[in-house]
Amino acid sequence: MSAPATEPAVAIRNLTVVFGGVVEAVDGVDITLERGQAVALIGESGSGKSVTLRAIMRLNPERKTQIGGEIRVAGQDVMAMSPKALQALRGRAVAMIFQEPLLALDPVYTVGQQITEAIRQHERISAGAARQRALALFERVRIPSPERRLDAYPHEMSGGMRQRAMIALALACRPQVLLADEPTTALDATVQIQILLLLRELQAELGLSTIFVTHDLGAAVEVADRIAVMYAGRIVEEGSARDVVLDPHHPYTIGLLRSRADGALAKGTRLKTIPGSPPDLANRPPGCPFAPRCFLAEERCRVEAPPYVDVQPGHRAACWRTEAAHAAFQADKAAVAEAVV
Ligand SMILES: Nc1ncnc2c1ncn2[C@@H]1O[C@H](COP(=O)(O)OP(=O)(O)OP(=O)(O)O)[C@@H](O)[C@H]1O
Ligand SMILES: [Mg+2]
User: Fold this and answer.
1) Which residues, by range, are in coiled-coil regions (predicted)?
2) Global pTM value
3) Ligand 1 center to residue 122 CA distance, Å?
4) What is the pLDDT of residues 110-123, one digit of tens each?
């Protein structure tokens, strides 16, 4: 794909995704992924992480989805792409690792067949050469006995191996951009972290630009350059990974960090320890969507949606009370930081 080298790998502006005319799953998201960088998307279940990732490849169900805003991949306008151009984009320039590996892998073909098929869909190479590449990929993602495992069916592999096979499948056509949704399946925490570290390694080696979803803030700091915290379809805080974790300015981010510090959030588990629940996306309240659960909310927060505040260069938070939030965090910073970094 040719584009000026200065164009970010992915640039999303004011993305909105509405399902069935009522569910505002994504509400004005901006994300910039610079080439060769990794951005982590963090947030509770239902905050719109997967919907955002899928929008980049236009994979949301066509008929009931209204999508608005701007999405550019390596300078190309994804919103304006024909079905044919989208097909070329998917799996080639942009590859995705799905949250449900068993849904992404076809149960009736061996993993090796699926990888060689994916390669031959996009490139004119022989079956033998495609299999050689599949084998090299299996070695690269460190699947033991790669030759034998190529001939395994997805259900014959463990969850961790399946996840590695999915990474191999995603890398089969040498993509520039990798979108990785954290698996929900019962992979244990250490396996998940190994997979994230593998992704980080591959990213550096292959010069990939990556957006990945994770529920683990500690892992995000290790593998991402930037962190974007999502809440109810919006990015509430975004900045360099260290700034967001060590110097948060949004009460929601602080809540996530605190719940982790309390030990309530073991490494790798889902983020759900802040009391209360996110708003109904079909019936958004006015004001800040986090206000009903916020320890700092005041009257204005329930009435008027907060604008982004640039709290540091390259670090922004959508909150009326960034100063108070930051001060509250400073007060117990040591304990929280120790638990995360
Ligand atoms: N095809 C769809 N039709 C209707 N609503 C949808 C559809 N896909 C997602 N949603 C809704 O959009 C919201 C965001 O969903 P999304 O899958 O992006 O959450 P998530 O942040 O990935 O959560 P998780 O951490 O559980 O994977 C949810 O309320 C979900 O129910
Ligand atoms: Mg998801």
Assistant:
1) none
2) 0.90
3) 30
4) 999 999 999 998 88
